[in-house]
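Chain A, query sequence.
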Amino acid sequence: MDKLNLALQLILSLSILVVLHEFGHFLPARWFRTKVEKFYLFFNPYFSLFKKQIGETEWGIGWIPFGGYVKIAGMIDESMDKEQMKQPPQPWEFRSKKAWQRLIIMIGGVTVNFLLGIFLFSMIIFYWGESYLKVENAKYGMAVDSMGMQLGLVDGDIPVSVGGVPVTKFSSGAITKEIVINEASEVVVNRGGQNVTLKVPEGFVEKLTKYENKGSSLFYPRQKMVIDTVMTEGPASKAGLVKGMEVISVNGKPAGFLHEMSRELQGVRNGIANMELLTPQGTKIYKMVGIPHSGKIGIGAGQLDLSAEKFGLLTSFGKGWNTSVNFLGDQLKAFGQMFSGKIKAKDSLGSVFSIATMFDKGWDWSVFWKITASLSILLAFFNLLPIPALDGGYVVFLLWEIITGKVPGEKFMEVVNYIGFFILLSLMIFALGLDISRWF
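Chain A, predicted structure.
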């Protein structure tokens, strides 16, 4: 069921992005009275799942559930319709339109994707607002994960600054971004009332960006293990644990914080744990609890003291714009790091299977729309790259035509498009190969 959810979210997200991207080409083409012969969601080699002729355009759904296209008359595109290009130009064809009109048609798709990304980020902020943990509300500091230990963090540390930038939100991701994207070389933490400066170790960024470490955190908020919820019929309930009890130790080892208890319970899976607890009345008691293979006994700690902010519509659009610009800027910096060799391409690239794993297995709509917004910005950026067969490749040739007045020959356009398709196909095969190698 989890895999089905991920697959359906991926297909829905990409379908939304592709349809709107292609409408970005379709609408200006029709405004300039250019014939659009086909508008397809998904690719349809040999046959279509559905098709209907409406006016001069065939609307359809292909059987390969990724991508889509519009076939604009008189244009060298992925259809490679050479026969049409041999005929004399017709007034309704793309090649008969003025260069500035063709430029608007070509940039329509990426324009829609940029605007969609901004709109989605804005609506996410407007509907869900922003929830975060303030540093001052994380009174027990960090519960440090293995990558954080390599940085020199210890349990209880409180972040102060990273790369000279003050930390106000208790967020591992924000610190990771500063180290990886903005090349921060030091992290300052408050440890036992004293500020301690930690230098980012040599090679740490490469370790942090390895594919197997994706999604891992440097640290989590450290929570006191005071029981807030007890699952009915779970191991804890059967052993007599109730809400309000505070865990002190497991088999004699300190377990007063959530991460400590989880670690100790994992160590006695399929066994019995002697848990020392403090009742709400302040009495110490001991309970023998059977630990299943999962290491989970059916209890939960209280909620963190999160700060929640809501924003008006206009403010949300301002923040949505800033989020989009910052996201794109971070991606450009990440690509710069990749080309400079600081981040390895094999750890950063992936096929649609890698994209699918970004979604929430339980289908969280806020996560779905955040990823869709991010993908929309990325789709716009990649399509603007000056690679033949991408929108950016056409834009380069159109700009050349506008500046020089010289029109690239149809044979030349045909050859460079073949080259572009070969480059794109090679990248897709490489990315797919990376994902396959990761599975094994």
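Residues 106 and 391 are 6 Å apart (CA to CA). The longest helix spans residues 2-31.
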